[in-house]
Description:
Order of helices and strands: HHEEHEEEEHHHE
CATH superfamily of the largest domain: Photosystem II 12 kDa extrinsic protein
Number of helices: 6
Radius of gyration: 33 Å
CATH class of the largest domain: Mainly Alpha
CATH architecture of the largest domain: Orthogonal Bundle
CATH topology of the largest domain: DNA polymerase, domain 1
Largest sheet: 4 strands, mixed
Structural class: alpha/beta
Shape: elongated
Amino acid sequence: MKWIKKYERWLYIGGMVLTAFIFFWINKDSEKEMISPPIENETAESVEAEAKPLTVFVDVKGAVVHEGVYEVDESSRIKDVIQLAGGFTEEADRTKVNLAAKVQDEMMVYVPKKGEETPTVMSEQTTAAGNEKKVNINTATAEELQTLSGIGPAKADAIIAYREENGPFQKIEDLLNVSGIGEKSLEKIKEQIIVK
């Protein structure tokens, strides 16, 4: 008993240190548990948001079973939208439709009847300032591209071939990557085209 009295002070200090250490350790673990779940949830939500594909609206008209506006994934093609519209009618001119073209928001797809001379994708957009019409180089047909200054059949085909191989143009200046189109050609048509 004498040794307890002799070291009582040190035992008391040791007990306090041990209690403080245990208290600190328990609090540290509980803080980790409190912080971890929200971070995990936030990460899961952001990954889920990134993984969720964007949708676009496409208006389908003409020789299809069900005309209407369809909501599709932004990576869809014209063939997917035609399928949603019930497919072609018997009188549809399938040769006038580029089924491989990618859809875009606010696009109108028109399927003509056999013998009808109407573009399959209405690519001319009316600008807000005035009624000047511009050709959307991402959806224009070869005939529409040829309405541009200095664009003949060969350059129109080159634009379409580039777009099919590399995807939609991101900006007007991307036309410079097309074979046969230089600075002068671009300058001539710059005010007549849009990228959408």
